[in-house]
Amino acid sequence: MVIESKLPLIQIPECSVIEFLFSNPFNIHSDKKILLDAITGESLTFAQAKDSILRFATCLRERFNFKRGDVLAIYSPNQFDYSVPLLGAVAAGGSTSPANPAYTPKELAYQLEMTKAKVLITHTACLESALEAADSVNLPRSHIFVFGKHIVNGIHPYSQVFLSHTRCEGPVHLTSKEAKETVAYLCFSSGTTGTSKGVMTTHSNIVSNVLQYYSIEQQFIKGAKDRMLGVLPFYHIFALAICLHVAFYIGMPLYVVPKFDLITFCQIVQQAKITYTCLVPPVILLLAKEPVIDQYDLSSLKIVVSGAAPLGADLSKQVRKRLPDTVFKQGYGLTETSPVSIVEPTDNVIDGSTGILLPNMTAKIVDENGKEVRQGERGEVWLKGPNVMKGYLNNPKATADCIDKDGYFHTGDVAYQDMHGHFYIVDRIKELIKYKGFQVPPAELEALLLSSPLVADCAVIGIYDHEQATELPRAYIVVKPGISPSEETARAIMRFITEQVVYYKQLRSVRFIDAIPKSASGKILRRVLRDAAAAEQKMQQEKNKAKL
């Protein structure tokens, strides 16, 4: 059956992102600080942000002949003024493509080449890699600028060039049709398998998702009294939409930090009385288990939204016991859905659930043949709504492979829906372990492992065994301080799982490592673990041959 959202339809304005953000429906005072550097105390008021964005856009058009269809790239950790170039390029009629600041020059060059970026804004810490990447794609250095106030290696701060521009024009106006077709952002998928793809997020996509998300939160967050901490990376669609855009739209002060550090996080929450933030499960794991948490007053924190990876029910219970004044809840979405499609209502959180379908959306849960399954049965989630991307950049085949003729985006995620309309994401189809014909979801085993007193962090993958002609579940484990990574510990961990799951879900091997490889958004990089396992198998095969 087609699953309809139970939430009331909302009216979505057919306009550009900039016109939407500047419409100021919440009567944000021009002198209100809405963007703050949580470390240095620097800030931008609503009026200053608006003026800087429009001044930036005017300079782009007049000095760099930046026009519709052109792209500006940002290669930097979070900055309090990240919104200025981000929205400035969009106000000029073009698109912004934010890049992971941890990218190598080769990875950045790929994104610059794919997007044909005309201007690059970077950070001094990333400058060397930025210049190398820019040189490889023939992006002139006169089109490269840095955040900050100082010239570095001949590269000027963007503020000296763009914000000193004498003229300041309004944003490019888009018709209803243009808002639905014009690309505002080009975020790139995480690329854990294969080559990363540029996701074309239109003005209408992002405006829709801000309103869809805010509709479920509007009775719980208020721009006039709440304060948000922006700690997740802004190059990722989760923080880009839910932190930058939602905070800007409702006038909620956004305290920005360049990267996550547990002590810094606790200090800022305590000092600034932060009430709202978005996190990923690895950070929530720290909040649940690290002793240092008890040294800080985090009682101001009302709501934490978890995304980008599954938040297990056990971990959810653990962190709620540690911080009982805070609501911890999940949201679900993808870069391709701008990103949020499903989120837990703040007043009805169910541990382990990712929530209910947002307004103006429909969904299907289907089997391997694309046939809709009954409520409560597992299958792949298909999503349809105004927040579904336009498609993949320069890749019509990949677009056609995942968006069907009816407009449903095929997520590749396995889920089921309960009788109350709550969704539960089980796993990625491509990550399911096939053990002798049975499907074993890694996320389920990982959630159980994280409840073990021996385990600090973990990841589970399937290792193909040629002798048994099947995949075998293997756990990669980071043990807690004071626990020995021994054979005895491995057996104890395997027994812990055996006692809680059916035989085909049992672990067949354990490996100890210092840290689980993850992307900046918190996703487990299973490809890295698979590569390590393959290298281990190859080495073992060579040893066996040598013995012969």
Outline:
With 548 residues, the protein is an alpha/beta fold. Helices cover 32% and strands 23% of the residues.
How would you characterize this protein structure?
It contains 16 helices and 26 strands. With 548 residues, the protein is α/β, with parallel strands linked by helices. The chain has three domains: 1-6 and 200-429, ANL, N-terminal domain (Rossmann fold); 17-173, Rossmann fold, CATH 3.40.50; 432-547, GMP Synthetase, Chain A, domain 3, CATH 3.30.300. A nine-stranded mixed beta sheet has the order 3-2-11-10-12-13-14-15-16, sandwiched between helices. The protein has a five-stranded antiparallel beta sheet with strand order 1-17-18-20-21. The longest helix is centred in the last third of the chain and has 22 residues, at 526-547. The radius of gyration is 24 Å and the shape is globular. The mean pLDDT is 93.
List its traits.
3 domains; globular; alpha/beta; five-stranded antiparallel β-sheet; Rossmann fold; 26 strands; 548 residues; GMP Synthetase, Chain A, domain 3
